[in-house]
Amino acid sequence: PQSLQAKLGLAIGYKRAGKIDEAWNAYQQVIAQDPNNQLALKTVGLLGTYKPQWQPGGIRALTSLLQQTPNDLEARNLRALLFFYQGRQAEAVGDYRMVLASNPTPENLLNAAQAYTYAGDATKAVELFNRYRGTGKPIVGDAAVAYGKALRENGDAAGSVRVLEAQLQRSGSLDRTAIETRKELAVAYLANQQPDRAVATLQPLQGRPDAVLPLARSLNDIRKRSTNAALTQQVATLYRQALAANPNPSPSLVKEVADVFSGLPNGEQTALQLYRQLVAQQPNDKSLLVRQLALENKLGLLSRSDIRQRLSAALQPLPSDPVQLQQLGFALAEISTPDPEFLPIYQSLLQSRADVPMLYFRVAQIYLQLGDMVNARQALAGYTATPMGSRDLAHQLLAAEIERREGNLDASARRYQALIKSKPDRADIMDASLQGFAGLLRQQKRYEDALVVYDQLFQRNPQSLNLQLGRTVIAYQAKRISEAEAKAVLENWLGTQPATNTPPELYSLVEALPLYPERETLYTYLAEVEPGNIPMQLRVVEAIAQRNPAQARARVRQLIARLPQNENSADLQAQLARAAGDLSLAGKIYENILAQQPDNLTALAALGGIRFEQQRFDAAENVYA
């Protein structure tokens, strides 16, 4: 009974006889006695492809084998396939990279193409699919579904429709593959400007228990491209049903649901609960902890110092494993308002070639917060140089904001108008384009024009409380409503919304209204939430200066110390000093600016104003002259 050879012979016999359950158990006994038995480890990996419940065991066996023989491409290909089945696409891609580097078979190409598709690298996926097609073999079944998805995400919506329609015609019944085909085809129709066909394609999936998850995924994709608020509830309900139908859901499914709920209105609490569950199950996965901390911060459950401390602990040291590093990069890239404190971490991830293009975008945002337009443009160029960045219209939004901050308002306006005219199929891009353009018109004091743009936004999102807040700002500045009416809207918001709900429109309204000393706590909280928001930092300094000028000057010194000491931040430093009543410091800063840039009209006007406040009228007259 203890003979290893006898156990191995029995396992081999069971496998040859087609008794896979007995073979699985027999090989487990071999591994229990000899954990490094390469034949048993590889065979368990192969058997792992036979049944879903055996996949994790197959991955463990192949991981043990690859620790002994890292160049075993057959084992690596098997593990990549199991990772793919488990929904662990980043890890699948990590293995497929090595397989593809060594004369891959057509089957390797096809499997890798599917993994790259679901890992989010559509450009590489299409390249691999085309290499496979070059062998003369057709792409059908689940592979055709992935091919259609990759084509759409790579910008070829019409090609995606053709591939998926052909696959649907090959389906004789509404089986699993047909369900997945309809799911992808609906999104392809929407991307191809055929919304009616998208809805009709999904109709046969309604009410089918086996179609709950595909339907949820498709509707969620459509939701992102639509202003139909009813889709949000449908998506949430379907994903809850998917979890309820799986008493022991896989970590990949739980993470998928958490990721979706984190992007749904009022879905953050559910997402946080799921992330906490995942972190408890996988405490070594730093990417999950980062997602949890980001949500806790968003919900106001952590102070800024707490989130910085816990993020620092989670991010240092960075993992050495390339797959873990990439997953961590994806998690950080999901944080839409990155903290400049962690700029070195973002840069380290980019230098490590973690292959997360969105990190370039976040770095550009950080430099924008710091007022460093040169590096912001450079980071944004890094993003647009990637296949993902070249397709993502969000880079146009950031470029428009950089131009606005540089004072090139005409170029910024043209960019926003071009985006709006192109009618992007993503609702968030269209909404952000309209909001950005309205903000630009506000800056130009074209309030009536800004209201027209805001009315377009309202037509798209009639239930949005944030837009009501934003419209109040413009109406107040256009003198359509009084200060008392605008203040009443602010008071109503503060009385009905949680303190953690701080949209950009709230900042705009607070900044547009006069200083209210009794609201110093609000100003301080908003400045803490967005430390890079200089107008709000100015408002805090102004509030403090009214009751304690010395404290205001001390705060300004702290803020100036945090700013990069370059010409880009000099104007901000001067504004802060002036808000604190430190006219001497503000004047010196503007003099330094003018020594470098004699024709800087903004600095000249500001210095002239300071000289008037100092009652140095002759000096003011000389400046204006």
- Classification by helices and strands: mainly alpha
Number of helical stretches of at least 4 residues? 37
Low-confidence stretches: none
**SS elements, strand count:** 0
Biggest sheet, open or closed, and with what strands and sense? none
The CATH superfamily of one domain turns out to be Tetratricopeptide repeat domain
**Roughly how much helix do the residues carry, as a percent range?**
over 70%
Strand content: under 5%
Q: Would you tell me the overall average pLDDT?
A: 90
General shape: elongated
Alpha-carbon Rg, integer:
29 Å
- CATH-assigned fold name of one domain: Serine Threonine Protein Phosphatase 5, Tetratricopeptide repeat
InterPro entries: TPR-like_helical_dom_sf, TPR_rpt, Ycf3/AcsC/BcsC/TPR_MFPF
Protein name: Tetratricopeptide repeat protein
Keywords: Repeat, TPR repeat
Topology:
Layout: H1 4-16, H2 20-33, H3 38-47, H4 55-68, H5 73-85, H6 89-100, H7 106-118, H8 122-133, H9 142-153, H10 157-170, H11 176-191, H12 195-202, H13 212-224, H14 230-244, H15 251-262, H16 268-281, H17 286-298, H18 304-315, H19 322-333, H20 343-351, H21 358-369, H22 373-384, H23 387-391, H24 394-405, H25 409-422, H26 427-443, H27 447-460, H28 465-477, H29 483-496, H30 504-512, H31 520-529, H32 534-547, H33 549-562, H34 567-579, H35 583-596, H36 601-613, H37 617-624
Helix pairs in contact: 1-2, 2-3, 3-4, 4-5, 5-6, 5-7, 6-7, 7-8, 7-9, 8-9, 9-10, 9-11, 10-11, 11-12, 11-13, 13-14, 14-15, 15-16, 16-17, 17-18, 17-19, 19-21, 20-21, 21-22, 22-24, 24-25, 24-26, 25-26, 26-27, 27-28, 28-29, 28-30, 31-32, 32-33, 32-34, 33-34, 34-35, 35-36, 36-37
